[in-house]
């Protein structure tokens, strides 16, 4: 699939993709490196596609190993340069109120900060760690003293002090009749084959961030499937066959 087809298949993000394409073209033309805002996985996928076959180097930073949102450095040559990202640690007494990802994100957005300026928010029992563009970190620290009903203290930490994300997957073993897209979707969410087929046919399913309405399309190990209204999962691997010769597969649902 070429770049134009990719954009047309994801029309709701057309403006974002065109902006990324313009950035790559500008870096290629001027040799001036450039950082992006935090990119979602589909935006990273698109950026990698744009860079294929071109003399462009892309590096990402979004935290430790298993980050999801990331800032990209786009350049003509390999560069060792610090990313403009700060990590904010949130501390408080969470004994009486358990805060969720939505609580932390909502508080940040209420300050007028756009979502693309904020990276992953890793939530733990004793607080959270927020990845954010450096231009906004001091503003956040000075303006947040409470999240919901809980008083909090915020401070910057280094990447070495940051913790690994907790397991973001829920593993599930399902038995399916084939590796068709509709069969995999049905198995992942305990739907009938007809219900899974309708989701695909009606344009509610993306495969590797691209809308795919082909019910019979074969899903491969490592593919990421997004289903509107249900969530997203990684098709991990085929484990074998059952006695009735159905495929036994492992999927990992994003929490």
Automatic annotation (TrEMBL):
Taxonomically, the superkingdom here is Bacteria
Organism equals: Thermobrachium celere DSM 8682
Residue span(s) of domain RNA-binding S4: 179-239
**Statement: the UniProt record of this protein carries the keyword RNA-binding:** yes
Q: Which SUPFAM superfamilies match?
A: Alpha-L RNA-binding motif
The UniProt entry's coiled-coil ranges are 152-179
Q: What is the official name of this protein in its record?
A: RNA-binding S4 domain-containing protein
Write out the entry's keywords from A to Z. Coiled coil, RNA-binding
Q: Which Pfam families match?
A: S4, YlmH_RBD
Under Gene Ontology molecular function, one entry of this record is: RNA binding
Question: Per its UniProt record, what Gene3D superfamilies does this chain match?
Answer: 3.30.1370.160, 3.30.70.330, RNA-binding S4 domain (3.10.290.10)
Task: Kindly give the SMART domains that the UniProt entry links to this protein.
Answer: S4
